[in-house]
Design a protein that fits this description.
Largest sheet: none
Structural class: mainly alpha
Radius of gyration: 35 Å
Number of strands: 0
Distance between the termini: 101 Å
Helix content: 40-55%
Shape: flat
Number of helices: 2
């Protein structure tokens, strides 16, 4: 009995080896996206919250007063800025007055 692989075994290897390589690459990319895996020793990553003020602590009365003063100063400073016209980057390219539409000739 010879030890040479049969045609069936060769064909199976031609199909299974690339498929196994593709699966290994895909599972490696997916596991890199898992939370808690990485160079930080496997510690879980901090969660990202877009909920607004749910995670903020309450301010002390002194901190709240300072925040109110900062808000008032900001509003006073922004109210002093004059209104500006919207910028028109094509102003130098566009003609200043629109050309009149050509009139149709009557027959």
């Amino acid at each position: 009995m010879s030890m040479a692989p049969t045609n069936l075994a060769r064909n199976a290897l031609r199909i299974l080896l690339p498929a196994a390589a593709i699966m290994a690459l895909l599972t490696g990319a997916a596991s890199a996206q898992q939370i808690g895996v990485g160079s930080n020793g496997g510690a879980p990553m901090p969660s990202l919250s877009l909920g607004g003020d749910s995670g903020k602590r309450k301010l002390t009365p002194e901190e709240q007063e300072k925040q109110d003063q900062l808000d008032k100063a900001y509003k006073a400073a922004t109210s002093k800025i004059p209104d500006q016209k919207p910028a028109d980057p094509w102003a130098a390219v566009r003609p200043s007055t629109p050309a009149p539409a050509p009139q149709k000739k009557q027959q």
